[in-house]
Amino acid sequence: MPAESLRAMPPHPVSTMPAQRQRAREPIVEQLALAVPAERAWQALTHPRTIGDIVLGPVEMDSRPGRPFVWCWGVWEKSAPRNVEGCWRGTVLDVVPGAVLVLGGAGQPTVVWTIKGQGTSSLVTVVQGEGPAGTDLESFRYRWADFLLKLKTLLEPPGLFDALYLRTLVRATPADLLKALLSGTTMGKLLPGRARVQARPQGRFEWQWKDSAARAAGRILEFEKNHRLTLSWEATAPVSEVRIEATRTPYGTVVSLVHLNLGHGTLGVAASSPARDREGYRRLWARWLERLRCYFYYGRKIRTA
C-alpha cells in the first residue's frame, strides 16, 4: 500500500520501528497460510467484491497487465482524525495467472503478491519495496499483516453454521483493548453514538447509534481479564451472543469476534436493531472493528461525525 497513494493510513504518531531497521530500509515481507486451494486464494485476491469486503470501500480491479486499479479503505477515510483520501491507485504491472500479481505505479513502491499451493492449502506472500524516504515501513508491515488476516478469516468460515466470525489486528494490548470496550465513552466513539456500560458481570450495556434509531442492549455474560468479553445480544430473537477475544501478537492484539445463534435465514430482530439480517450484521461488525483499529492506531483519537 504505497504511502503516496493510500493517505487513509498515514504513519502512526509514534513509530515503533527500531532505529537500526529504519536505516536498513528493508523491504516488507508478510505471508500467511490459508486452508484453501491456491485457485481460491487467487480468485479472492483479484476479485473486486472480495477485496471490497476486506477494505470496506469501493474497489476496481482487473488483473490484466496495464489495467488500472483502485482500492478504497472507506471506514478509515471516515474515521481518521484528519481529512484523508483513503484510496490506493495504480497499475497492474505484471501477472502470472494464479501465481503472481504485481501492483504499483510511477513514484510508488512496487507490491508483489505470490500464491503457492498444494492440495487444499496455499501460502500467500506480499512483498513491498522500501518506498520514498520517510516511509513508515513498520506501519505498512502492520497493515499488510491485517489484510492477510482478514483474507484468511474471510476464506476460512467458522465450523458453526449459525455464527459470524471476524478478526482484525489492533495496535493495543489486550488489557487496554478490553478496558476500552467496557467504557461507555469509548464505545460512544466507536459506534459512533451514545453508550452506557455497567462494567461488571451481569451488568447491562446500551448502545445508541448516532443519527439513527438503531439501538442494541444486553448483559455482560463473561469477562476474563486481558482475554475475553461475552455479551448477550437482545436485538435478535431469540437472544444471540457476541464473544470478543483478545490475543497478544508481535503487531499488537488479534481481536476475534464471534456472533453466535444468527442462523442462515431471516433473523427475528427488534424494530430498532442495528442490522436486519446476517449479512447486515457482518457489515456492522466489520465496520465496528475497523473503527476500533483506527481508534488505537491514531493514539485513541477518532472522528465521530
Q: How would you summarize this macromolecular structure in one to three sentences?
A:
The protein is α+β, with helices and mostly antiparallel strands. The protein contains eight helices and 16 strands. The longest helix is centred in the C-terminal third of the chain and has 20 residues, at 278-297.
Topology of this protein?
Elements: H1 19-24, E1 28-34, H2 38-45, H3 48-55, E2 59-60, E3 68-72, H4 74-79, E4 87-96, E5 100-104, E6 111-118, E7 121-128, H5 137-155, E8 164-170, H6 174-181, H7 184-190, E9 193-197, E10 204-209, E11 215-224, E12 228-233, E13 236-237, E14 240-249, E15 252-260, E16 268-269, H8 278-297
Antiparallel strand pairs: 1-7, 2-3, 3-4, 4-5, 5-6, 6-7, 8-15, 9-10, 10-11, 11-12, 12-14, 13-16, 14-15
